[in-house]
Amino acid sequence: MVAELGDKIMVKDIMKYVDNRKTVNCIRAWARNKPVDFVFMPFQCLKDGSVAFLAVEFDKIKDFQKLCHEVPADPNDWGGLQSYEFTVTKDFKYGQNLVNLQTGELYRFLIFLDPSHDPFQDGFIKASGDERAIETSSFIKNLIGVPLRTF
Q1: Contact predicate 111/118, CB 8 Å
Q2: What is the SS3 assignment for 133?
Q3: Which whole-number Å values give the CA distances from 46 to 61, 86, 144, in the listed order?
Q4: What are the tens digits of pLDDT across the range 47-91?
Q5: How far, in Å, CA of 14 to CA of 83, rounded?
Q6: In angstroms, rounded to a whole number, what is the distance separating the alpha carbons of residues 14 and 108?
């Protein structure tokens, strides 16, 4: 599954996830780690029905909400609709893993965060607990981390 720029994505039951925050350490200019809270939720890519996870920085949740095609009248109310759709834009970063070397199949997850944060994708993988996202490449990549990518 590869969610690409311009793809339509659907998130169901957002309220189920908004109160369940997980902390990821974000690196700022190779200095110290800064703990940042994220909301993790599954999404479905509408072009092929595949599912992955989306991590939204909690402090940016209202900015994320503005990207949804169905914006509730009350920005504090995510419970109005059963599902929300949005289009993948350059506002997102992504992490990915090659899950099948023979077919070249990729697994891609999306991140919506403050652009000044510069985290590695392994922090999101650990927080999500999603085994499909684990990068199993080289020792050096695993040692220093794999940066998130931009569209």
Answers
A1: no
A2: helix
A3: 22, 10, 34
A4: 999 888 898 988 888 888 888 876 555 556 666 667 788 899 999
A5: 7
A6: 20
Run of H or E residues at 143: helix 139-144
Q: State both tokens at 110.
A: 């999306």
d(CA 24, CA 28) in angstroms, rounded, equals: 13
**Cβ proximity of 41 and 14 under 8 Å:** yes
Q: How far apart are CA 126 and CA 87, in angstroms?
A: 26
Give me the amino acid identity at 105. Answer: E
CA 54, CA 71: separation in Å to the nearest integer?
18
DSSP secondary structure of 81-103:
SSEEEEE--TT-EEEEEEEETTT
Domain range list for the chain: 8-150
Q: Are 107 and 99 a contacting pair, CB within 8 Å?
A: yes
Q: In Å, how far from its chain's centre is CA 116?
A: 16
Q: Is the pLDDT of residue 135 over 90?
A: no
